[in-house]
């Protein structure tokens, strides 16, 4: 089969998008490849198609668990075998999945970077017939990037395990410095680099510097037809702005990561299906959502970097029709962003305190805890020790970078179970323990494959089928686990925190102060770039493209700055044409005002009279009080 035939068979497309085919051919030739495709450019096709053409399994590293799960479901729906391993999964569950990758028909293994820290994962990967290593969101490996993830530094160890396999690094946003860093950190050899221009010709970038943002938001919602996205700074604002839009008779809802999983899914689906017109959200919304007909994306607050802004704004107009990316800004926003930057950097002492508090929070003695996983409730942790949420998040990132712990993002992991004994032993247990017979039979009828693998279950479904309470179902499952009949992993919706080394005391905790200083400077530069974009009056598109290394970019002609320049040019052109017609009309005759106005074929009467007055003042025409002449 050819790449195009694979594309047609599994995705239903006849042709590739720009650069996809070139990237795929590079991978098929066994070349290390770096691909920069803007948001919506179809990055996943670039590793999925070549992996299907080759024998073996493709390993995909991605920092976003929700996105990994989404891609796995999409591949399965097309009849392609894929699995994902991420923080929060049990050791036995991971063991089975890895065995399936070695001995089964799995074509794609998705891994969170934290999982590469595990010895069992690395050992099993060495036995796999790997055909390609794909690094999604590759900018996360660079300390110069806006979204540096310390566990990404372990990704290069995959290359050490399979040195002869091609590596494909993919990202939507990377400055020239970050591109160089990606190549260096991933040890890419003889790398082929493909960069699609960051220019989005159908996307009109607009910045409004004004105090009353809410009024402008209503104006945008009423004047721009179609669905939209509004990004705000925090969870509280999502509900407030959605209700404000509703009060103004505009269909809107809100979304943030703190909502229940079912709520989040329903809101997301309602917006995707156009049941809700405008979604007000934090930046937790939008990743991996390919909705082509978004007509506008409004940022009600300044973003923390131009990379983040470009990615979020780029969710508008993926259908190639005209769309708007609007940034509403004022002086107080700039001060808030600068203040947040100042507040977000903890001192070495504060980082050590956060680590110490974590040990107390989980009641770990010094010298123990290595490899242990815990659910992590950030809000509860900060409240318990009366510490800043922003500083704590930053402190955790520094502790990650220095190898003390790993933290995964908030993600919903459904309940799973698996029988840990064989069919005959289960049957014997049912006979000896008749009270468990109904639930065991219901599990066997409802969930196929539970003797071989972990299967996803819903306690509420079991409750309905057995006609017992939800709590009784959980009690039965826990008892079956105690008896060694099943392994039961309850659902969770919390981030997962893992201690990578035994708990270290204050004295031996080594925090890299030089690195903290470097990250502080990088963030300062990023914030200054955002403020410059919002305040410098030049083509917005040129500013963005210049930031991403496209130094010879042409003016877009559709941003607020270009349109204002065009309007001024049109006005000047109209003035010149009216002046010319006045001169022609007066060349051979003297005319009174009404006659002169009547001779001019363009412009309104007011514009004509204004030009006559201007030409009189400049001495280009004369009047005797009644008639005009040259």
CATH first level of the largest domain:
Alpha Beta
Q: How does the major sheet shape up?
A: 7 strands, parallel
| Total helical segments | 25
Low-confidence stretches: none
CATH topology call of the largest domain: Rossmann fold
Structural class: alpha/beta
Please state the overall shape, judged from the principal axes of the Cα atoms: elongated
Describe the strand arrangement of the main beta sheet, using strand numbers. 3-4-2-5-6-1-7
Rg over CA atoms: 31 Å
Number of domains: 5
CATH architecture of the largest domain: 3-Layer(aba) Sandwich
Report on this structure.
With 630 residues, the chain is an alpha/beta fold. It folds into five domains: 3-195, 3-Layer(aba) Sandwich (Rossmann fold); 203-329, P-loop containing nucleotide triphosphate hydrolases (Rossmann fold, 3-Layer(aba) Sandwich); 338-411 and 494-511, Orthogonal Bundle (Arc Repressor Mutant, subunit A), CATH 1.10.10.10; 416-489, Orthogonal Bundle (Arc Repressor Mutant, subunit A); 560-629, Arc Repressor Mutant, subunit A (Orthogonal Bundle). It has 25 helices and 22 strands. Strands 3-4-2-5-6-1-7 form a seven-stranded parallel sheet, with helices on both faces. Strands 8-13-12-9-11-10 form a six-stranded parallel sheet, with helices on both faces. Strands 14-19-15 form a three-stranded antiparallel sheet. Strand 10 (252-255), helix 11 and strand 11 form a beta-alpha-beta unit. Helix 2 (20-28) runs parallel beside helix 3 (43-53) and helix 14 (348-361) packs across helix 16. The mean pLDDT is 89.
């Amino acid at each position: 089969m050819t790449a195009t035939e694979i594309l047609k068979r599994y995705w239903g497309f006849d042709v590739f998008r720009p650069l996809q085919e070139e990237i795929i051919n590079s991978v098929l030739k066994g070349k290390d490849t770096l691909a920069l495709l803007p948001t919506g450019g179809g990055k996943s096709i670039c590793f999925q198609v070549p992996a299907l053409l080759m024998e073996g399994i493709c390993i995909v590293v991605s920092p976003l668990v929700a996105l990994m799960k989404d891609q796995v479901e999409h591949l399965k729906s097309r009849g392609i075998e894929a699995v994902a391993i991420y923080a929060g999964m049990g050791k036995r569950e991971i063991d089975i999945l890895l065995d399936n990758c070695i001995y089964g028909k799995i074509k794609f293994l998705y891994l969170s970077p934290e999982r590469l820290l595990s010895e069992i994962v690395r050992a099993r990967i060495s036995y796999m017939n790997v055909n390609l290593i794909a690094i999604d969101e590759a900018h996360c490996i660079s300390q110069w990037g806006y979204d540096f993830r310390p566990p990404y530094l372990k990704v290069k160890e995959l290359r050490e395990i399979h040195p002869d396999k091609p590596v494909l690094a993919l990202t939507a946003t990377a400055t020239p410095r970050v591109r160089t860093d990606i190549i260096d950190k991933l040890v890419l050899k003889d790398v082929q680099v493909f960069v699609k221009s960051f220019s989005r010709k159908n996307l009109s970038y607009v910045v409004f510097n004004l105090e009353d943002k809410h009024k402008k938001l209503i104006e945008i919602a009423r004047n721009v037809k179609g669905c939209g996205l509004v990004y705000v700074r925090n969870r509280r604002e999502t509900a407030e702005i959605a209700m404000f839009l509703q009060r103004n008779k505009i269909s809107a809802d809100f979304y943030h990561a703190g909502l229940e999983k079912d709520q989040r899914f329903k809101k997301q689906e309602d917006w995707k299906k156009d049941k809700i017109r405008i979604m007000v959200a934090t930046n937790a919304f939008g990743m991996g959502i390919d909705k082509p007909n978004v007509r506008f994306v409004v940022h009600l607050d300044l973003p923390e970097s131009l990379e983040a802004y470009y990615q979020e704004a780029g969710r508008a107009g993926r259908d190639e029709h005209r769309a708007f990316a609007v940034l509403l800004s004022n002086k107080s926003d700039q001060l808030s962003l600068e203040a947040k930057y100042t507040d977000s950097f903890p001192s070495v002492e504060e980082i050590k305190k956060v680590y110490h508090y974590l040990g107390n929070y989980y009641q770990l003695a010094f010298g123990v805890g290595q490899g242990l996983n815990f659910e992590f409730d950030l809000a509860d942790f900060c409240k318990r020790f009366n510490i800043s949420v922003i500083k704590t998040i930053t402190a955790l990132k520094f502790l990650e970078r220095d190898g003390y712990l790993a933290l995964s993002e908030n993600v919903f992991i459904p309940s799973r179970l698996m029988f840990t004994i064989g069919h005959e032993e289960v049957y014997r247990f049912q006979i000896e323990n008749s009270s468990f017979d109904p639930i065991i039979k219901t599990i066997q009828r409802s969930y196929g494959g539970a003797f071989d693998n972990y299967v996803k279950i819903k306690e509420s479904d079991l409750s309905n089928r057995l006609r017992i309470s939800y709590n009784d179902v959980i009690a039965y499952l826990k008892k079956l686990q105690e008896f060694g009949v099943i392994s039961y992993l309850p659902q969770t919706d919390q981030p997962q925190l893992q201690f990578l080394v035994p708990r270290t005391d204050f004295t031996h905790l080594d925090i890299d102060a030089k690195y903290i200083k470097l990250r502080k400077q990088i963030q300062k530069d990023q914030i200054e770039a955002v403020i410059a974009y919002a305040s410098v009056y030049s083509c917005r598109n040129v500013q963005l493209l210049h930031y991403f290394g496209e130094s010879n970019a042409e003016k877009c002609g559709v941003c607020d700055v270009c349109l204002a320049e065009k309007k001024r040019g049109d006005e000047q052109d109209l003035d010149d044409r009216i002046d010319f017609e006045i001169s022609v009309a007066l060349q051979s005759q003297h005319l009174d005002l009404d006659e002169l106005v009547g001779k001019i074929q363009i412009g309104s009467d007011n514009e004509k009279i204004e030009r006559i007055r201007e030409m009189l003042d400049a001495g280009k025409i004369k009047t005797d009080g009644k008639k005009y002449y040259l």
